[in-house]
Amino acid sequence: MATFQFDLVGPERILYSGAVDAVQLPGSEGEMTVLPGHAPVLTTLKTGMLVITESPQHGKRVLVRGGFAEINATSLTVIAERATPIEELTPAIIDADIAAAEMLYDATDDYDRKIEIEGQIAQLREAKVALSF
Question: What is the first-listed, main subcellular location in coarse terms (predicted)?
Fold first, then answer.
């Protein structure tokens, strides 16, 4: 199967760099799967699980909280505002993120911002359930 170069950059470190079969992204306009030969796209990311498929039956998952993705036919680069590999997640980390988002929700009167934050909280809760915490 054809592969493409994928680089995932977090604020503190490079979390992934290598050839992959596919990457599923939590795009701000909806989930999207990037495959080799993808049309060029620049998109923002929302809070959610990024799924890296290195080969059939082998992959990694990373919880991202915002960022950007630059896609072209031969590569994908994600610059995440925050990113945590699933192996490093704990219930305390997710609970702290939920509490911080709830405080932001309470602190704003902007309706659109409240809707955005509600989405982040829902994604974090879904991630917590999916990880069987």
Answer: membrane
